[in-house]
Design a protein that fits this description.
Elements: H1 5-19, H2 31-38, H3 42-54, E1 58-61, E2 65-68, E3 75-78, H4 92-101, E4 106-117, H5 120-126, E5 133-143, E6 146-156, H6 176-181, E7 187-197, H7 201-206, E8 217-226, E9 231-240, E10 244-247, H8 255-262
Parallel strand pairs: 3-10
Antiparallel strand pairs: 1-2, 4-5, 5-6, 6-9, 7-8, 8-9
Helix pairs in contact: 1-3, 2-3
């Protein structure tokens, strides 16, 4: 059996997408045009588009139309530290190296730096009093020109008494972990929480997400600890879930060989 008409329409459009006839980011014909082409009702056409959306083959931008989804090559980010090299954990230098190894180009906008009062979540994460001043550093990251992640880090304001560059709007090239270590504030561990959720309005705009919500946001919340078990940084990084994968290595893993196999 051929199946219901909406599925026949969806299958035909899927074949046209997979063959390249309808390329990435190409706008599909309007509902009226599809109704005429397939001699179908509006509800039938909408059901066909809904099925394609569920499969992730198309997305809808409110007021603009329905478009073919882009083919995404996810970036792998290693969240754990290599016990031999002492590096990893998704810090910016490692993140840059992993993107470079994949033959892609990373660019960073920011940081935008401000001092503000700690919200309840930030205060709890850093174990400071609510309303205490914190340094906030925001960055936006792009891969091959596409918006890839947004990162916001919060530091107790008191750290700037020793590490004044935390307040600078310029980039800390060596990374804040290495910079703070120069002042005896050594990162010895971190705690990560990883979750997936629907994007908010700002994230939808930045990542150019479809309004139907079928692409979620991955959010990593990291709390870092120094050698005295003080909480020195709370970082929230958000990613488009379809453009990223997260790697966790436990034990003696031949990391280089793993990346060769996954490339």
């Amino acid at each position: 059996m051929a199946g219901p008409l909406y599925r026949q329409i969806a299958d035909d459009l899927r074949r046209r997408i997979e063959s390249g006839e309808l390329g990435q980011r190409t706008q599909l014909p309007t509902e009226d045009q599809l109704m005429e082409s397939y001699r179908a009702s509006r509800n039938t056409v909408r059901n066909a588009l809904k099925e394609l959306t569920t499969r992730g083959l198309v997305y809808t931008l409110h007021g603009k139309g329905t478009f073919v989804s882009e083919l995404v090559r996810p970036i792998r980010t290693t969240l754990t530290i290599d016990p031999k090299a002492g590096k990893g954990g998704g810090e910016v230098l490692i993140y840059t190296a992993e993107i470079a190894a994949s033959g892609r180009l990373l660019s960073v906008v920011g940081p935008v730096v401000e001092v503000s009062r700690a919200s309840p979540v930030v205060a709890y994460s850093l174990r400071i009093s609510e309303g205490t001043d914190v340094i906030i550093r925001h960055e936006k990251r792009y891969v091959d020109g596409l918006p890839w992640s947004m990162q916001t880090s919060f530091y107790p304001r008191s750290l700037s008494d020793r590490a004044g560059r935390l307040l600078d709007t310029g980039n800390i090239e060596e990374g804040t972990v290495a910079y703070l270590a120069e002042f005896g504030i050594k990162q010895v561990g971190y705690h990560d929480e990883i979750g997936w959720r629907s994007p908010n309005e700002g994230e939808t705009a930045y990542f150019d997400l479809p309004a139907d919500g079928h692409i979620q946001i991955a959010e990593i919340r990291r709390i870092t600890f120094d050698q005295s078990k003080n909480r020195v940084r709370f970082t929230v990084t958000v990613y488009r879930a379809d453009r990223n994968r997260f790697v966790i290595n436990v034990g003696d893993v031949p990391v280089a060989d793993m990346y060769e196999e996954m490339a």
